[in-house]
Fold this sequence. Notes:
It is built from four helices and six strands, in the order αββαβββααβ. It is α+β, with helices and mostly antiparallel strands. The chain starts with a helix and ends with a strand.
Amino acid sequence: xxxxxxxxxxxxxCVARKATDVRGYQLHHPLFEDAVMxxxxxxxxxxxxxxxxxxxxxxxxxxxxxxxEVSGQLSSGWVMxxxxxRLVLHIMLPNMRLFYQLDALYADKARxxxxxxxx
Length: 119
C-alpha cells in the first residue's frame, strides 16, 4: 500500500470522526515517511478518541506490515500516530497547531489532501 492510499484512508477516518483542517503532505525523501498529515480536534477527549480510532484504521490497512505506533501525551494537546515508513499523523488541539505551525514546515511540499469536517 502506498503513502497516497494511507493519506486517503486516514483523511477519511479523521473527517468521519469530526477532525477539522485535515491536511496531508506527500514527502519525497527516502529517509522519512511517505506522507505527513496534520489534523485539529476540539478537546482532549476528541484527541484520545481520534488517536485510538486512527491507530486501528492504520493497523487494518496493512495487516502484514508493521503496526502503528502512538506517541505523545494527551495532556500536551498533541499526539502522533505513525505507520513506520508510510505516514505520520499529528493530531493537535487548536492552540498547539497555531503555536507549532507544522503546516509551515511542509508549505513547499505538494498538498495532496485537504479536508474540513465543519458542519
